[in-house]
Amino acid sequence: MKIVCLGGGHGLAQVLSAIRPLCSQLSAIVATTDNGGSTGRIREAQKCVALGDIRRCCLQLTDDQSLIHSIFKHRFDGGELDGHSLGNLTLLGLTQLTESPTEAVAWFNAMLGNAETIYPMSDQPTDLVATLQNGERIVGECEIDALTEIPNTISLSSSIKAAPGSVDAIMDADLVLIGPGSLITSVMPSLLIPEIADAIKKTSACRIFIENITTEKSVMKNIPLNGVDWLETQLDYQFCDLSISAEAINDILLHFNEEIKVNDQQHDISQLSQVFSEILKIPMRDHSTSTTIN
């Protein structure tokens, strides 16, 4: 089965780790609009895409006890490099050498010995933009997360193209997994790119949205609707066939005599693997038909 995962932050990295043992052809499309921490400083100085979530996803696919994992996870302490991850700086160097974030990620992933394919959502930098009810525009993920009112609309600051290969991966997939993570800053960015949105709408893959298991700490804690309804209103298209709620996950885990574990507001990887093993038993959409799982 060909599986493509979309998202960002810790959520996507956890999904990749959980689903990896269950399939042989795994790809991920990573949000690149983060503007905080080391990533934000690099973006501001170099005018490039966000690299932190890409690094996290690539490293999640390596043995966390290996030397190479420790090397690229290392953060410098003090001086001009204070807080920077060696993995982020390596990705920056590869981006400058190849002049293509997509190629840079491929090389970085190969250095780690990963067989999976990781795509940035785009080779072009862009930022998230929130428009408030009064028309004020707020630019940047960190600034949006700090809002106290739900934005009226979310958009990208510039028109960008999907990363080479990412659209083909979605169109050729048997299963597309979206989320979990912050609805605005992790889930939405790639879905706002017209080419990716079009592929999500047209793919014959079964599209599954994985909901968060706890309430977000960001502005989204004030959301009046459930996540799927809010996202589809914002995106103006149906992005999933099936939504897996925390309650549904708990029902699946009850078959294993377990209850949902929460690790720092995140899904437990071993439990996600159990959930995915059950989901993969569901008959998926046949590429030759238009049957949809509802």
Brief rundown of the structure:
The protein is α/β, with parallel strands linked by helices and 294 residues long. The chain contains 13 helices and 11 strands.
Question: Care to describe what's here?
Answer:
With 294 residues, the protein is α/β, with parallel strands linked by helices. It is 40% helix and 15% strand. It has 13 helices and 11 strands. The protein has helices at residues 9-19, 37-46, 52-60, 67-73, 86-98, 101-111, 141-145, 166-171, 183-191, 194-202, 227-235, 246-254, 269-279, and strands spanning 2-7, 25-30, 117-120, 128-131, 137-139, 153-156, 175-178, 206-210, 242-244, 262-263, 266-267. The chain has a 6-stranded parallel beta sheet. Strands 5-4-6 form a 3-stranded antiparallel beta sheet. A two-stranded antiparallel ribbon has the order 10-11. The longest helix is centred in the N-terminal third of the chain and has 13 residues, at 86-98. It is globular, with a radius of gyration of 18 Å. It starts with a strand and ends in a 15-residue tail after the last helix. The model is unreliable at 285-294 (pLDDT under 50). Keywords: Cytoplasm. This is Uridine diphosphate-N-acetylglucosamine-binding protein YvcK. It comes from Pseudoalteromonas neustonica.
Structural descriptors:
294 residues; 40% helix; 11 strands; single chain; alpha/beta
Give the topology.
Elements: E1 2-7, H1 9-19, E2 25-30, H2 37-46, H3 52-60, H4 67-73, H5 86-98, H6 101-111, E3 117-120, E4 128-131, E5 137-139, H7 141-145, E6 153-156, H8 166-171, E7 175-178, H9 183-191, H10 194-202, E8 206-210, H11 227-235, E9 242-244, H12 246-254, E10 262-263, E11 266-267, H13 269-279
Parallel strand pairs: 1-2, 1-7, 2-3, 7-8, 8-9
Antiparallel strand pairs: 4-5, 4-6, 10-11
Helix pairs in contact: 1-3, 1-13, 5-6
